[in-house]
Amino acid sequence: MQTSSKTSLLNKKNIVLAFLSVNILGCATLNKPPIVPLPTLTTYPSIKGTESSSVPPTPSLPNNPEFIKTRAQQAYKTGRLDTAENYYLQLSRIQPKQASPWFKLGNLYAEQGRLDAAEHAYRQAMRRHDSARTLHNLGLVQIKLGIGALREAQQRLPANDPVHQQTHKFLQTLLETWRQQPSTDPR
Questions:
Q1: Tens of pLDDT along 122-146?
Q2: Which of 41, 80, 137, 142 is the Cys-Cys partner for 75 at CB 3.0 to 4.6 Å?
């Protein structure tokens, strides 16, 4: 008797689920927007001008440096650093002689703590335009890299090694001097 009541209960559940599914799907199709026919595509001359194509030419906006620069700045300001990075890399490809995309990439990488990438980007910017701001940021990144290397060296050296003690004193002096400097952000 119990198996027949279980079977009956399962059948009722299946019927209810089927009913709900049909009603839900039916409701979803009731409010469909009307189908509007698409306009026919006009033909555009091909590059050589002898043939025609039904595909319109690609708009130049996505490869426009000002458009990409604006998008990169918006992404950077809103904290979408991966998107900003992609835009600045794209900008560096379409304007290979410009230093600005590399400088911005250096700032972005430095902010993320990607110091090796920041150093590379600042060097690329310096190759394109010798700028005191870029040199300043490059120097700051190199100091941070140097501090990291000295800390690692200090950890690896035996405590009784004179270089360990010298490294400790140098790091201490360097960090004290670093803390005394006013905070600057030359972006």
A1: 999 999 999 999 999 999 999 999 9
A2: 80
- The residues with which 53 forms a beta bridge, in sequence order, are 44
- pLDDT above 80 (res 14): no
Residue 35's identity, in one-letter code, is: I
CA distance 175 to 178: 5
Q: What is the dihedral of CA 147, 152, 157, 159, to 10 degrees?
A: 70
Q: Which domains does the chain have, with CATH numbers?
A: 61-180 (1.25.40.10)
Q: Which residues of 11-48 are buried (b: 16+ CB within 10 A; e: fewer)?
A: eeeeeeeeeeeeeeeeeeeeeeeeeeeeeeeeeeeeee
State the DSSP H helix or E strand holding residue 149, giving kind and residue range, or none if neither: helix 132-156
